[in-house]
Amino acid sequence: MIKHGLILVLLLSSYVCQSWETGLDPNDVETWLNYPQEFSDLIYGPEGVHTPGYELEVRVAEKWTKGTLYYKLIRVEPEIEIVSEKTIILNKTTSDEAYTWRVTIPEKEGTYLVGCLYQTLPQRTGWLLNGTEIHEKYVTGYVKTIPVRKDWLQVEMNLDKEWYKSIDDIVLSVRNLAGYKISIGPEYRIEQKKGTEWVSVPFKPNVGFILLASEVLPNETYSQSLQVPRFIGDLEPGRYRVEKEFLAPN
User: Fold this and answer.
1) What domains, with CATH codes, occur in the chain?
2) pTM of the prediction?
């Protein structure tokens, strides 16, 4: 069995980056390699192993209007290589599109690092004995490590909407991008993000699934109504993800 998940968001959640640090240079690759990987769930893409050609989406938690925003995709294994990068000087007229970066994973296998760092304008942090002001730039952000393999099961999962009310039905579609058929059943699991962990949301008593698998041929799409209000009930505001299991040859 191979699991493949996609994050779904029910209602707006606020995120605050964990730390603001000084003495970091976003232009230096070492800064990215050593940056802590908290809050990396703001980098959207499939969980686990990725495949070449997949488009990642990096979203900025807060729309700052001063400073510099850095996006990077770095290949860290087997060798260090900056694959793609984008730098934006922020101001009050910066468009909303600037706070989302989409980048395609290249055809090379390996381990990659993707994310964004935000650097403030120089800010006064103290005084020297001779009366000189001390100015420093603060850096915050988030990065995520992703493995890339060509032979991984290529399945694309999508939801019919990005935001949901607790009473809404959720329609999941699964597209088979592999060169062989896969089998998929009706069972699924919903997990809620609590702190740094994903916690399974229980179904109502006496809810079960008929273990009848459907075959999905290459380039075909399987759709399923999850009927969350019926099977689980009203979900509290927060961040959720859907997990499915697939069966593939070998």
Assistant:
1) 14-148 (2.60.40), 155-247 (2.60.40)
2) 0.56
